[in-house]
Model the fold of this input.
Amino acid sequence: MKLRSVRGTHDIFGEQIDKFNNISKIVSKNAYLKDFKEIQTPIFEFSELFAKPLGEQSDVVLKEMYSFEDRNNNFLTLRPEYTTPMIRAAITNNLLNEIPLKIFGIGPMFRRERPQKGRYRQFNQINFEILGTKDFLADVELILLSNNILKELLPKSKIRLQINSLGDKNTLIDFKKNLTKYFNTHKNKLSEESINKIDTNPLRILDSKNEGDVEISLSSPKIYEYLTDEAKNHYEDLKRSLNLLDIKFEENANLVRGLDYYCNTVFEFKSDNLGSQDTLLGGGRYDGLIKVLGGPDIPGIGWAAGIERISLLMESEKKISTTLHIAVTNQKFKDYFLHLQKYLSENKISYYWNYKYNLKKSFTKANTSSATHIIIIGENEFNGNFFTIKNLMTGEQKELKLNQIFHHLNDKS
Ligand code: HAM
Done:
């Protein structure tokens, strides 16, 4: 059997894991600044949590979920997204007693998509949600937060924010009816895939990338004409606030998002340097979703960003490697070396040690890496109860007692 990883999955190590950890650190810092509480939910849930809320006709539910039946005949699904599990967790743990609830989470999601650059079958998301307020300032807060995080992570990347409003559920029903009518009259120019969506999910045709579909969508009915006054005001308030905060945005009337639970504000941050998978971050309002999932009738809004896509745009940071190496010249000094290890650990001094009891090999390794000091343990050191420490940059060598090492390494004079 040839060992291999599952298509669309990746082992994360080296430079990649450094980027991941850096992203998590910056996200958590920004989250705590705005008092979002972290939450972790299980990787699998009952399948029914996803099917209806995400949309029976959405791509995710139709063809991308990893679902299975366990031995107790439970139908389970590896979470394809974080919003529904987070709401489930808020309901089952009574977290909605005090609203608005501001939560965030970071973790792996699973979608059986066709893998390509920036699109994987297991990928990691950062996810923020505010449950329990319809105030447009929540929309602003979340967009501001995502803007800050992306700016901090990708200071040199050009990222575009696009926004749209989908109106309330009734607006959407009306709008979909008219879209279906429109697309039916232009059926002959649409792609096969879009023709299949005319009656089931016409909104998705609007964000098709097929050239013919794009052209037909240009003259399709526009959602803005269908918005209620309340939805229009909400959208206008949002735009005014973004201008006030000097956050640049483009309005994209065809921005509809891929999941069915959205209404009113939707937004995406895109990059021109990612190829076809150009959306770094996406989100919006889902005012009926919490009720559909069995919770109170309260609104919600959130966003998620793909960690892999962000890290594709991140520059690698120069890793600071361990600067202190150890050379033990013979196996018989193992016990003596243990005293040094205990001392270094207690004093939080990091060191490199390669299990080779050979002075020459230890020096070669130290000289070819970024080591600045090497501690030598040999016959003289063992017999004299001291340690030799050599500064590899100056060549200076000193014999020190164990308790003098910390001071010596930190002495900048
Ligand atoms: P989404 O647009 O499906 O939204 O995913 C959000 C982000 O996850 C995308 O912009 C992308 O960066 C990343 N992503 C999605 N699929 C893949 C994939 N196959 N491989 C790599 N990265 C991927 C949601 O998931 C919503 N739950 C967002 C949300 C939160 N809406 C409200 N609250």
